[in-house]
């Protein structure tokens, strides 16, 4: 029997990530090849983006996706998020020339307060929210704090692109297949301070750290390469990562919804105090997913080098959260 369609809201739907994301959601790559979807698309209430969104919807029509059970264009979050089972918050204000970080946080604060409130008011009580728009962790924190009627665990931020970047770098370094690399994690903030950690990683049970055995490469090549990959893409393409970001969003939601089959993946999720991260901080943690829920992998040993890296990325996140406290 055909499954009942689920409602997937996507913001920033006419942007570059939206263009790389919507077709894959509609083709079943995110929620399964047997799961019909209704796309509820949000763009800013301005002629240009709304017109571009109509064009994207024309193309979605032209794909005749069997799983696409409906599609709506919206300019109001309270309409776009109605009964949403999944919400991918991609749209946000990018940093302009000369814009201070505090200013960026304030502009995005207003967007994510409004969207958090709208989710609280109209979305499914089980809505799974993924924030992609930067600064992703803090935007997710703001949305979570603005939706007191929804469980905190429903709000997540995207660190999967960082995770996938780290996996790919490790595969290249070790000459092993990407698919065989397990137990990697990226701790902290989606920013250059993130801490990509392969101390626990294995390939067919063999330790990756032992295979590489090069702390100099870890500290001076691997970490800066993963941390500054976003900037390197902008430098090369003249635009920020879009297809790889959309791919990471699909990976994040698919694993959350359908399970990670025991594999560790990285998600930005609200802390419950694990690893000394203060409660509610939206932090990149290793998780496993099963039956539509994620669980933080606990009890990992944190050595002195890792503790210092985690301290740095946590301090940055706490600075961002302090910067938006007055808005909440
Ligand atoms: N977490 C991550 O790993 C990554 C995050 N990003 C971030 O994702 C965001 C989107 O990137 P792109 O698609 O390349 O940007 P883009 O500028 O091409 O598209 C963003 C779209 O969002 C729309 N938008 C802005 N405010 C909105 C609002 N309040 N409601 C609905 N729509 C709104 C804009 O009109 C625009 O069409 C950026 O903040 C970017 O920095 C990008 C790559 C990776
Ligand atoms: O760096 C940027 O602006 C886009 C981004 O988040 C990434 O590619 O990781």
UniProtKB/TrEMBL annotation:
Residue ranges of every copy of the Lactate/malate dehydrogenase N-terminal domain listed in the record: 6-155
List residues binding substrate.
Answer: 95, 101, 134, 165
UniProtKB keywords = NAD, Oxidoreductase, Tricarboxylic acid cycle
Spell out the InterPro entries in the cross-references.
L-lactate/malate_DH, Lactate/malate_DH_C, Lactate/malate_DH_N, Lactate_DH/Glyco_Ohase_4_C, Malate_DH_type2, NAD(P)-bd_dom_sf
Catalytic activity entry = (S)-malate + NAD(+) = oxaloacetate + NADH + H(+)
Enzyme class (EC, first level): oxidoreductase
Q: Where is the active site?
A: 190
Q: What is its EC number?
A: 1.1.1.37
* SUPFAM superfamilies to which the protein is assigned, alphabetical: LDH C-terminal domain-like, NAD(P)-binding Rossmann-fold domains
User: What GO annotations for molecular function exist for this entry?
Assistant: L-malate dehydrogenase (NAD+) activity
Q: Give start and end of each Lactate/malate dehydrogenase C-terminal domain.
A: 160-325
Query: Which amino acid positions bind NAD(+), per UniProt?
Result: 12-18, 108, 115, 132-134
The signal sequence is none
- Family, as annotated: Belongs to the LDH/MDH superfamily. MDH type 2 family.
Give a short account of what the protein does: Catalyzes the reversible oxidation of malate to oxaloacetate.
Q: Which NCBIfam families match?
A: MalateDH-SF1 (TIGR01759), PRK05442.1 (NF003916)
- Which named protein is this? Malate dehydrogenase
- Species assigned in the record: Verminephrobacter aporrectodeae subsp. tuberculatae
Q: Which gene encodes it?
A: mdh
């Amino acid at each position: 029997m055909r499954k009942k369609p689920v409602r997937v809201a996507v913001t920033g739907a006419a942007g570059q990530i939206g263009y790389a994301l919507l077709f894959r959601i509609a083709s079943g790559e995110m929620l399964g090849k047997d799961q019909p979807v209704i796309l509820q698309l949000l763009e800013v209430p301005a002629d240009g983006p709304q017109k571009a969104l109509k064009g994207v919807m024309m193309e979605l029509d032209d794909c005749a996706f069997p799983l696409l059970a409906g599609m709506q264009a919206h300019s109001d979050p309270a309409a776009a998020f109605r009964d949403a089972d999944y919400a991918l918050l991609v749209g946000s204000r990018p940093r302009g020339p000369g814009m201070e970080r505090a200013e960026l946080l304030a502009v995005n604060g207003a967007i994510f307060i409004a969207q958090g409130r709208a989710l609280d008011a109209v979305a499914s009580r089980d809505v799974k929210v993924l924030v992609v728009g930067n600064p992703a962790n803090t935007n997710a924190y703001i949305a979570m704090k603005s939706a007191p009627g929804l469980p905190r665990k429903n709000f997540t931020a995207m660190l999967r692109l960082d995770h996938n970047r780290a996996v790919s770098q490790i595969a290249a370094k070790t000459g092993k297949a990407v698919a065989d690399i397990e137990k990697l994690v990226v701790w902290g903030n989606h920013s250059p301070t993130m801490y990509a950690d392969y101390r626990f990683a294995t390939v067919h049970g063999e330790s990756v750290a032992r295979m590489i055995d090069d702390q100099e490469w870890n500290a001076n090549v691997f970490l800066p390469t993963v941390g500054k990959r976003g900037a390197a893409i902008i430098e090369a393409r003249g635009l920020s990562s879009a297809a790889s970001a959309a791919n990471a969003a699909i990976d994040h939601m698919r694993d959350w919804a359908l399970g990670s089959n025991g594999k560790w993946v990285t998600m930005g999720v609200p802390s419950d105090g694990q690893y000394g991260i203060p409660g509610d901080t939206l932090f990149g943690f290793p998780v496993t997913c099963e039956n539509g829920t994620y669980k933080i992998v606990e009890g990992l040993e944190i050595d002195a080098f890792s503790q210092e890296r985690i301290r740095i990325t946590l301090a940055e996140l706490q600075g961002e959260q302090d910067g938006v406290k007055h808005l909440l």
